[in-house]
Each structure stands twice: as C-alpha cells, then as structure tokens.
Design a protein that fits this description.
Length: 625
C-alpha cells in the first residue's frame, strides 16, 4: 500500500541516499583493510599467483606444463622451462588461481614424465615448486609445493559488503515499517511543518467534521481497493536485472561473477534466463488483460511487433558492444545481442499467445480438486509448436554437417578435446551464425577464449540458441497461466510452481547425468542448451514460488529494493549500458587489480541504479516501449 502523504517517502529516499554514502565509505575502508591484510605482489593481476620453480636435478632440464580443472579434455600448456645450468633462467611463472590446476613436470630429453601435482593456488600468493632427487636416477624424483608468502584473503571485501547491505536492508525495512505507523506519521508532519500543525490545532475550526472524515475514509477505501499487480513478478524481474547490472559492471573482478567459459554455471549465468522467464510470465498476464478489455488480436499483434522492433533497434544501435572493433560501422556491427534476442523471443511467444489464448480463461473453482494437467491440456497447440521448435533445435544441433567438425559437436574448440577441433567452437550453432551473419558481425571475444584459447568469433546470443530462449520464455508463460487459472488460490499456485520446479529438475538430471561435462546434453550458457533451459527454469519456478509466498501471500516483504528496478527494467538496463563509463558509475581507481576497489565501484554503480529506479517509481515515471 502506498502512503498518501509525501513526507515519509522523502524521508525514505533520504535514508536510501545516506545508506549509499555509508556503503561507499564502509566498503572503501574495507578496501584498505583487505589490502593491508596481505599485500599484493608487484606485477600480479587478479586471479594470479607467483610460482618459483627450483630445479634440483643435476644437469637435467625440465619443462612444467599446466592444465586447469575448468578446461575439459584440454591439452597441457607450457608454463615454464627450468635449466639448472643457467642460474635464474625461466624459473618464475605466473599461475591461474580461479580453479585448481594440474602441473605435469617432464624432462626435455625424451619427454619423460617425472611427476604430476594437483593443486589449488590462491590469489596473490607466492609459491615454490621444488623438483629434486636424492639419487642420480630420475625415477626417485619428488615434487613439492611450498608456500613462500601467504595468499591474500580476497573474499573479505565481498563478505564485508554483504553485511553492509544486510544492515542497510534491515534499517530500510524497519524505517518503512515505522513510517507506516500513524503516530510516527503525525510526529513527522508536526516536526516538518510545526507552524501549520499548530495553526490547525488552535484554529476555531477545531476537529475535522464528519464530512471531512467521510471523504478521508472514502479516499483510503478507494486507495485500498485499487487492483494491485503482482509485486512478486516485478520483484523477480528486478532481482534478475540488478544481478545482471552488477555482473556487467564487472562483479568486483571475482570469477564466480563472470560467465562460465563453456559447460557449467556461475552466478552470472543465472540471471538472463530468469529475465526471459519472467518476461514470458508478463506476456500472458498482459495479453489476457488487454483481450479482456476488448482489444482486437490484430491491434495487439501490431503493438507487439512495434515493441519488438524497438527492442531490436535499441540493442543494435544504442548498446551494441562489439569489443576490440572501435567505433561501430556497418562492416563489423554485431547483429545479435541481449536485447535483440529478447525482441525475437518476445515476438514469437506473443504470437503464440495471440493465436491460441482465450480472452476470458475460466479460473479453477476453489472447490474442485486440482487436476494434474489443467494448466497444460487446454493449451496443447502451443505445446505442440514448442515441441516442434525444440525438435528443430535438436536436429540442427546433432545432425547438421559442419565442415571440418564432427557431426553433433558441442565443444568449445581451441585446446579442448585435446586440440582436435580448434575452429569448431559451438558446432552447428557457431557454423549457422558464421554463414548467416558473417564472422565480422558476431561477438569477437566469447568466454571460451579465456580458458580454451579459442580464436574464432562466437555469439552466445546467436540464432540457434534463440530457439531455446523461446522455450524458456514459454515456460515463464506457463507460470503466468498458473497464476490466472488458480487466481486467489495461493496454495494451488505454490503447489504448481513446486511441481514444475521438480519436473524441470528431473529432466535436467537425466540430460546431464548430474555431471558438468559427461551428460547427454551438458548445461551450457553459450549454446543455450535444452538442459540449460530446464535447469534454469527449475530454479526460476522455485525462486518465483518463494518470492510469491513472501511478497503476495504472506506480505512479510514488499519486494524492496528489487521491486523498483523491476518496474523500470528497460530504462535501467539501457541506462546502465549507455552510462557505463561515466562518473559516478565509474571512476579512476588507484589499483585496478584490487578486488576491494573494483567491488566498491561496481556495487556503488549498481546501487545508484536502484536508487534512480526508486526515485522514478515515487515520481510515477516509467519508460515503456
């Protein structure tokens, strides 16, 4: 419920601004504390550590190879070569600390493997690798890793920031609760405008008459009876959006806030599918509402088409980022992207809904037993089309011949698969994009080149993956149907969300064999594999169930602060992309390889967008396209 007076709103906005200042100050202090906790060695970047290689073998040159656990079936890469006859020659190396790595030590003569070590190096640490033997025979070689200087505890800034945000959330929640109390409201009004308050109290009019009270009661009654939209949907959308903004700003430089190189998931891989999911939910609720108002399907189709075109053009020209290409030009502009995929997905799912949806679906009677497929069977034509689309994805992915690559290849190429398919990144998905779009119009720095050292462009928002994006949005559409069919039946809604979550989870377990790389279809964000869709929809149904229960059923949480960005999602997303390099969203840091300083900048930038969304919400300013 919105407060009819503006003073508490201004106070809450002031508290939010002060909280942001507190965040900057506190996190900056944590930055200094983290830096003092363990000094970063010179010439080291984030996610790196020093390794001093000491060759104790007499007159035997050795070569040290390495391979990250994240790199599935990869070739070993040369880390360093150590020759005991040359003092201090090639005996210092920089190792990756994001994931455990395997070191393999071989002799250069005969390439004999001496030993193999599996170790997890820690960021900004200083280590020594001792290769030695007590005998002249190399078969008694021992390899040991010793810590010369303790690594930095780089997770300290994010822990401090977490508790700061928890404290801010508690203060804002408590402040919002207090501002809703009549006693506090009256006290604030008196303190803010004591002259006017005293004049009313001491005036000859005395207490308000019955007519005044009646009009005031009518105002409150009208306010409370206005139909409220589901806050849980906007909260879920805002949650996905804010994490997406934080990740796009850099995520503090932490590897788990960056996209996975190929198979598997990180936090960054969760949010875009959730955004697509909740878009599908909103499509059903929106179109049903407009059909009930008597809008023709043809008119709604033109509206959907125009909105899709606007989204595509904004993604193409306003926030297009084809890295390392300089200013955009027609010769190398990236055609696909996040908003472009959203526009196509929105168009396809909306057309499906307009073709088959009923303007007045009958809600399930509360006295009727819940039929297991009540929210599926009436919509069988839509499901049939979705199954046809998914069959098309499977056929193209596993049956399309790709020159120089095995049929059905799902790997990253590069040094993966022991270097056999260097230029086969993405298999059929990458091939279709290269043929239809052209390499110059694709994403030039995919995440696969970080670990797998790929060299060909690959677009994670490519053409083939858009099919599964449509499937993801359709599953969100299914959530919208549940909300309509079981309107005001909270228990049934929660049961259906939980059932769909379990069902999607079971499908994912079968497709992946509960493994990152060994399943039939691994979870892969770059490919938008069907297992990726089912896994993320499992999470989405469960998370929406929790938010719906807390926000719309129990009403113990109003959805803040995520609710406000969720109400202005397009503005926040486009704005954070356009102003990414402008102050106060970015400033010059003293140490660009400090997690604490990087995290402070990214959190402040994200928090500013939350504050902007809140102010726009209070001003009733919403950007719709």
């Amino acid at each position: 419920m919105e407060l009819p007076i503006c003073a508490p709103a201004r106070c809450l906005c002031l508290v939010s601004a002060l909280s942001l200042i507190l965040l900057v100050t506190s996190t900056s202090c944590s930055s200094q504390g983290a830096d003092n906790f363990s000094k970063r060695p010179a010439n080291l970047k984030m996610d790196q550590a020093f390794l001093l290689i000491t060759n104790g073998l007499p007159s035997e040159k050795i070569v040290v190879y390495w391979r990250s656990d994240q790199c599935y079936q990869c070739l070993y890469q040369t880390l360093a070569i150590s020759d005991p006859r040359i003092e201090h020659a090639s005996d210092v190396a920089v190792v990756d600390t994001r994931h455990p790595i395997t070191l393999q030590i071989n002799t250069t003569s005969g390439n004999t493997e001496l030993c193999r070590i599996h170790y997890r190096f820690r960021e900004f640490g200083n280590y020594s690798l001792w290769v030695k033997t007590n005998h002249s025979a190399t078969k008694d070689v021992t390899c040991d890793i010793i810590i010369n200087q303790n690594p930095a505890y780089t997770n300290l800034p994010i822990i401090i920031a977490f508790f700061i945000y928890v404290a801010i959330f508690i203060c804002l929640s408590l402040g919002s609760f207090l501002l809703r109390l009549n006693t506090i409201q009256n006290w604030l009004c008196k303190r803010i405008n004591p002259v006017e308050t005293d004049r009313l109290i001491n005036s000859e009019l005395g207490s308000p008459n019955r007519a005044d009270l009646s009009s005031q009661d009518a105002h409150y009654a009208t306010w409370n009876t206005v139909p409220q939209r589901l806050r849980s949907l906007d909260t879920f959308r805002g949650l996905s959006l804010i994490i997406m903004v934080f990740v796009n700003y850099g995520g503090g430089g932490y590897w788990f806030f960056k996209h996975q190189s190929w198979n598997g998931l990180t936090i960054a891989d969760l949010v875009f599918p959730w955004f697509v999911f909740i878009m599908g939910t909103s499509i059903h609720l929106s179109l049903i509402s407009m059909l009930r108002k008597g809008n023709s399907r043809c008119k709604l189709f033109l509206k959907v088409l125009w909105r899709s075109i606007q989204l595509f053009l904004i993604g193409l020209f306003v926030i297009n980022q084809n890295y390392c290409r300089g200013p955009l030009s027609w010769s190398d502009i990236r055609i696909m992207g996040v908003l472009q995929r959203l526009s196509i997905t929105y168009l396809v799912v909306s057309i499906l809904e307009l073709l088959f949806t009923k303007p007045l679906p009958d809600p399930m009677p509360q006295t009727r037993t819940c039929f297991l497929l009540q929210d599926v069977v009436p919509f069988w034509p839509q499901w049939l089309i979705i199954l046809v689309l998914e069959t098309g994805w499977l056929c193209l992915t596993y049956l399309l011949p790709v020159p120089g690559c095995p049929v059905g290849y799902l790997g990253p190429g590069g040094i993966g698969d022991f270097g056999k398919y260097t230029n086969c990144t993405g298999g059929a998905a990458g091939y279709i994009d290269r043929v239809v779009l052209g390499e110059d119009h694709m994403y030039q720095h995919p995440t696969s080149n970080v670990v797998y050292k790929t060299t060909v462009p690959y677009d994670p928002e490519g053409i083939l993956g858009t099919i599964n994006s449509v499937v993801m949005a359709f599953l969100g559409l299914q959530a919208g149907k549940i909300l309509v069919l079981y309107k005001n039946q909270h228990k049934q809604v929660l049961v259906r969300f939980f059932t769909w979550s379990v069902f999607m989870g079971v499908i994912s377990a079968i497709l992946t064999k509960c493994s990152t790389n060994e399943g039939f279809i691994p979870v892969n964000k770059n490919l938008w594999s069907i297992s990726y869709v089912t896994t993320l929809s499992c999470f989405a149904f469960f998370l929406l169930m929790l938010i719906y229960f807390l926000v719309d059923v129990m009403r113990v949480w109003m959805g803040g602060p995520f609710f406000y960005p969720g109400m202005n999602s397009i503005l926040v997303y486009v704005g954070h992309e356009v102003f990414v390099n402008y102050f106060p969203f970015r400033w010059k840091m003293q140490d660009i390889h400090s997690h604490a300083q990087y995290l402070t900048q990214n959190l402040v930038a994200t928090s500013i967008w939350v504050l902007i969304a809140y102010i726009l919400y209070r001003k009733r300013i919403f950007w719709k396209i």
